Amino acid sequence: VSKAILPFLAVSIFILLLVTYVPAISLFLPSLLFQ
């Protein structure tokens, strides 16, 4: 893994964990789409 991609990788993992542990975030988008 090159050092240039590390910040992007870290942010991606952080967002993935955030969506996994905060269900409201992952349920927010479908509720917008199916109004």
| Rg from Cα | 14 Å
What's the domain count? 1
Helix content: over 70%
Overall structural class, as computed from helix and strand content, comes to: mainly alpha
The best one-word shape is elongated
Query: How do the SSEs run, as a string of H and E?
Result: HH
Number of strands: 0
**Biggest sheet character:** none
Supply the number of helical segments: 2
Low-confidence stretches: none
Distance between the termini: 42 Å
Determine the strand fraction and express it as a percent band: under 5%
Q: Kindly report the average pLDDT value.
A: 85
Protein name: TRAP C4-dicarboxylate transport system permease DctM subunit domain-containing protein
Keywords: Membrane, Transmembrane, Transmembrane helix
Primary descriptors:
35 residues, mainly alpha, 77% helix, 0% strand
Helices, strands, pairings?
Elements: H1 6-21, H2 23-33
Helix pairs in contact: 1-2
Transmembrane segments: 6-29
Keywords: Membrane, Transmembrane, Transmembrane helix
Protein name: TRAP C4-dicarboxylate transport system permease DctM subunit domain-containing protein
Can I get a quick summary?
The chain contains 2 helices and no strands. By secondary structure, it is an all-alpha fold.
Describe the structure.
It comes from marine metagenome. Keywords: Membrane, Transmembrane, Transmembrane helix. This is TRAP C4-dicarboxylate transport system permease DctM subunit domain-containing protein. The chain is an all-alpha fold and 35 residues long. It has one domain. It has two helices and no strands. The protein is elongated. The termini are far apart.
